[in-house]
Write a structure and sequence with these properties.
The complex is a heterodimer of chains A (about 280) and B (about 280). Chain A is an all-alpha fold. Chain A contains eleven helices and no strands. Classes of the chains: A mainly alpha (about 280), B mainly alpha (about 280).
């Protein structure tokens, strides 16, 4: 998909435009109450000058809920991606560098996790752990590290054969030291690109979980807005302003992070195929 | 794991002491945990998934009713999307730099970042509420005509197919790009093979093993990914049942649906491994 530097620049500019719009929303959400029209009024008011995006079933201003939701969705996306990327990077480096039986065990463990359909398992976990901000982050982080682990492992295996590693082993450096000081910096590009792509997936996963009703009710995210629109009848009422904006926001944010991640992968000269490992 | 968590829930949701007694006796709930797990496994192999509290019925009855509804939605969309996605991805990956191909590839990535259920809600809004072409969701009542059934089924199948096609196409495109750089492709082209023959034997055949494992993932997805679409369309299949189990905190039902999904996925992957063993000479050696 990415052919030249010009195309890369286009992709990166597009992603930056999309993402800055979303971050702007997160910043705007700190504006004082009632800045965007009245904080609460009659339910299901269509968009007007006093409520730019209308009101929802409780009479809350949709624009305000949307802005506050951006904070929740972005932070869960970033934290979940961080947890999953750290787990994936550690597993990948360890398996790839150690090799042998450790590699075998960790790789088959990764394969098992890869095959299990993530969403039902997440639903089961989230249902038992209870819905809170932290639990959603944990559930996403624990189940979304497999692709990262695989890519990092492949890269770490390449590095293991490099002459400078042999030199370090000859100098008597410990394995842990080599892994942290010499292997990790070399897989950093892969890890970072994976992190950005993981943000996109965890925002989608979080909204899926919230849509089912397993999000944190204290911190309503975009997915939760869709959940309420579905379960409290906004859809049947035809109140499109309550569910079109949050879905649009989820799509834009997720697309922005995917494009950014694709650009990064290309910059770090990773295989073009890894775009296909989005899921 | 599901079993351990679901432990304390039995008996909490029902008020009928006779039923509690019979359930305790049947599932050995007063015995130690290891023994209970053994009984649970035994029942599982006999197709007894336990008792649902929110429905007040045995779970195997509920599943027997709802599994066909999921299958009738997911089987057509999975088959369709594997076929369309493979053909689309192959043509996108062959000489991928032309402008229309790049636009279509980017669209596939963009579709990937739209929440499935949201697209479902939008379609419901436009087609059912505004245009009144399709029903608002749910399954048709028993005994309704085939036309009615298709009307209810059309939108969910459409949404699922669009998403699966874009996913398969992205992956198939990557495979084709990789394969078309191989020397044997140049050889095949210089032999002057026909267009169809070339596609079939030199582009499709080498990418079969990864495609088969993709198909296995798709089958898992057919059960799990369809979940959100089922909820959006109130289509009472397995995913919708799982959602009801979550909202009603009906842990035995949740446990049963998840176990079933896991079993299907494991079976599909075993089958995929077997197939790629038979097809790919490199795996054999």
């Amino acid at each position: 998909m990415i052919r030249s530097k010009l195309t890369l620049a286009k992709v990166e500019i597009a992603s930056i435009v999309l993402l800055s719009a979303v971050f702007m929303m997160a910043v705007l959400s700190f504006m004082p109450e009632g800045y965007f029209g009245r904080a609460s009024s009659a339910p299901y008011l269509p968009p007007s000058l006093s409520n730019l995006l209308g009101t929802n079933d409780l009479g809350d201003d949709v624009l305000r809920t949307l802005l506050q939701g951006s904070r929740v969705s972005l932070s869960i996306g970033a934290l979940g991606a961080m947890v999953s990327t750290i787990i994936g990077a550690l597993v990948g480096i360890f398996a790839g560098f150690m090799g042998g039986i450790i590699d075998e065990i960790m790789s088959s463990f990764t394969d098992i996790f890869m095959v299990v359909p993530a969403l039902p398992l997440m639903i089961v976990l989230a249902a038992y752990l209870g819905s809170s901000f932290l639990n959603v982050v944990i559930v996403i982080g624990l189940l979304w590290w497999t692709t990262t682990a695989r890519l990092v492992r492949a890269r770490a295996r390449q590095i293991r054969g490099a002459p400078f590693i042999e030199g370090l082993v000859g100098l008597g450096a410990s394995k842990l030291y080599i892994m942290l000081r010499h292997v990790l910096p070399n897989v950093w590009g892969v890890v970072f690109a994976r992190f950005v792509l993981a943000v996109s997936s965890s925002i989608l996963l979080e909204s899926g979980l919230s849509f089912i009703g397993l999000g944190d009710p204290q911190n309503p995210s975009w997915g939760m807005m869709l959940h309420f629109a579905m379960t409290r009848g906004a859809l049947l009422y035809g109140a499109w302003w309550t569910f079109v904006p949050p879905g649009l926001c989820i799509s834009i944010t997720s697309l922005g992070f995917i494009l950014l991640g694709m650009g990064l992968e290309w910059r770090y000269k990773m295989s073009t195929k890894s775009i296909s490992d989005l899921l | 794991m599901v079993f351990i968590f679901g432990e304390e829930i039995y008996g909490a949701a029902i008020r009928n002491p006779d039923l509690i007694q019979s359930l305790i006796a049947k599932y050995g709930l007063e015995m130690p945990m290891g023994e209970q797990f053994w009984i649970y496994l035994n029942n599982l192999f006999r197709g007894d998934f336990g008792y649902s509290f929110s429905f007040g019925r045995p779970i195997s009855d509920i599943i027997g009713e709802r599994l066909p509804l999921t299958l009738i939605m997911t089987v057509p969309s999975t088959v369709l999307s594997l076929i369309i996605g493979t053909i689309l991805g192959m043509s996108l990956g062959w000489k991928p730099d032309s402008l229309p191909k790049r636009i279509i590839s980017t669209t596939c990535v963009a579709i990937h970042s739209i929440p499935t259920y949201w697209l479902g809600m939008l379609l419901l809004l436009v087609l059912s509420l505004w245009a009144r072409v399709t029903p608002i969701g749910g399954a048709p009542p028993v005994g309704s005509s085939i036309l009615d059934f298709i009307q209810h089924l059309a939108l969910p199948v459409f949404v699922l197919t669009i998403f699966n096609v874009s996913y398969v196409a992205i992956i198939m495109r990557g495979l084709t790009v990789e394969i078309s750089e191989e020397p044997f492709v140049t050889t095949a082209l210089s032999k002057g093979l026909s267009w169809f023959n070339f596609r079939l034997r030199h582009l499709l055949k080498p990418s079969l093993p990864p495609l088969i494992s993709l198909a296995a993932i798709e089958i898992g997805f057919a059960f799990s990914g369809a979940l959100l679409v089922e909820i959006a369309f109130s289509w009472p299949g397995m995913g919708y049942t799982m959602w009801q189990a979550v909202t009603e905190r009906d842990y035995p039902l949740l446990q049963a649906t998840f176990t079933l999904v896991a079993l299907v996925v494991i079976a599909a992957n075993a089958l995929a491994d077997l197939l790629s063993y038979l097809l790919d000479p490199r795996v054999k050696s």
